[in-house]
Design brief:
The protein has 183 residues and is mainly alpha-helical. It has 6 helices and 2 strands, in the order ββαααααα. Strands 1-2 form a two-stranded antiparallel sheet. β1 and β2 form a beta hairpin. The radius of gyration is 22 Å and the shape is elongated. It starts with a strand and ends in a 12-residue tail after the last helix.
Length: 183
């Protein structure tokens, strides 16, 4: 999904599907992936990612500037001002990127849950599609030739994502629209 500035709002969404995905995924797998991407749109993840990316980076820049100014004017240590400002800036900057990465994984999991619970995608088709996309990436990228991708599995990150959703679905409480299991 790609957000493009155009129209009434900042984000108008476009979805690009590779030729290899169209050729190698079944209709059910492709539908599962499309609904998963639709979940990102419905949950407004593109605009949230922009906010969650800009805010900590802007904050870390301001924090670094303030630390340098405090060192320079309040502590009267011009010899330390540059080093402290840069050190705090680097630390804050990398902490911000770590937090952005965690938030991105949260958005993926939130979209996965939304896809299964609200848009009613088939879990097995979705998992199969993710694994096939991993295999396609390996086939189309010679630098991954030596990577040991297990048969019928995806990357460890993909398998972890699939397992997390399976565990969630196994232990979740039924939503209001779902009827509880009969005893």
């Amino acid at each position: 999904i790609l957000g493009i500035q155009r129209g009434k709002s900042i984000f108008q969404y476009s979805l690009f599907i590779s030729k290899s995905a169209l050729e190698n995924l079944t209709e059910s797998e492709l539908q599962s992936l499309l609904k998963n991407e639709l979940s990102h749109v419905l949950l407004k993840h593109a605009s949230k990612k922009l906010i969650y990316s800009c805010t900590p980076l802007l904050g870390s820049t301001i924090l670094a500037i303030c630390a340098g100014l405090i060192t320079l004017f309040i502590l009267k240590r011009p010899d330390l001002a540059d080093g402290i400002g840069m050190s705090i800036g680097f630390l804050s900057f990398f902490t911000s990127f770590h937090w952005i990465g965690l938030k991105s994984r949260y958005f993926e999991f939130e979209a996965d849950i939304h896809s299964v619970r609200i848009l009613k995608i088939d879990f097995d088709h979705w998992a199969s599609a993710l694994r096939k996309l991993d295999a396609l990436m390996f086939q189309n990228n010679p630098s991954f030739e030596s990577y040991p991708l297990p048969k019928d599995q995806g990357l460890p990150e993909t398998e972890q994502r699939i397992q997390m959703l399976a565990t969630y679905l196994k232990h979740r409480a039924p939503s209001q629209s779902e009827s509880p299991p009969l005893a």
